[in-house]
């Protein structure tokens, strides 16, 4: 039965013809016809033995030009085939398994087996969907010269590629005041922050050289520097990944826009010197205590793996009640569809020092609908409570939304 499955359509036709000829030659005592049938069957059996003979020492090595690539970019894949040589001559067909989103599986063939010096082949793929994907395994089909039989084999090794969010080059938000209402805070630092000196009351044993005379004169009591150097501003980057807050499908959905915006903004903030922590609707996902040398790569990998969640509130991703916040901590939120409860949560957890910025998506437009006035109303309410807000639709690019955030900050300044 296994031998029958290894026969091609041509091979099955030939073996049926051979058996019929052999049977007819025996029944009608036609020796020539019987010999023809026997010879035909022998050829098919030889083809089965040829393809079943193992390819001696066949190995392959797959190399990717990069370990990760942004959405929409091409990357190269190289493959080297080697063999210990020997074995019967045959036609080898190779097919490398790739994710369906990356296109058609690359195929190539070698006649007579793998050359003794090895064989190299390369192809290019395009990552059109964010996520982690595996390339492989490599499928090998062995064929006899007449195409009568085949034997399918497969390597077990695969290679992972991370398709990261689409990245846009954004300028950092300037330091300084971003504006606030009278009932909010009186001074707020921008997302990048500003140089400052932290002071406290003088305690016995403090070095006199650490006395901060300007603060001492202002407070009327001896004050000393708590830190000699400027503090590093901390920004919490919040990505709204609630399923109920987004619309659209695939790469054009509001959620993919939000992830791309978060990745672009996060890299811009890291480049400007900000200490970054990443959070979503389920809570904190990237701590600012991680290794600074790999923080940008960690940010991209976290946003590569982020998915929609069934959470209904943003409270877990914002500054929770009783949470110890860093000095002048700020928040940059990429928000989807809001409700009155979300608005109350955002206002309640607004940083008392630092800044609050939001890229607010009109998610209805990502599903082909009209712009909703409700999102515009929420944007206005947040702006009245000290937030710097930029409202984006499906036709708004990430750089344009970032520029809108700059312009809104200038209006409030």
Protein architecture, described:
- By secondary structure, the chain is of the alpha/beta class.
- Helix content is 29%, strand content 24%.
- The radius of gyration is 33 Å and the shape is elongated.
- The protein starts with a helix and ends with a helix.
How many domains, as an integer?
A: 4
Low-pLDDT segments, ≥5 res: 174-190, 192-196
CATH topology of the largest domain: Rossmann fold
Count of DSSP-assigned helices: 9
Characterize the main sheet.
Answer: 6 strands, mixed
Q: What proportion of the residues is helical, as a percent range? A: 25-40%
- In round numbers, the mean pLDDT is 84
> Approximately what portion of the residues adopt beta-strand conformation?
15-25%
Q: What sort of overall outline do the alpha carbons produce when their principal axes are compared?
A: elongated
Structural class: alpha/beta
Radius of gyration: 33 Å
Give the CATH H-level superfamily of the largest domain: von Willebrand factor, type A domain
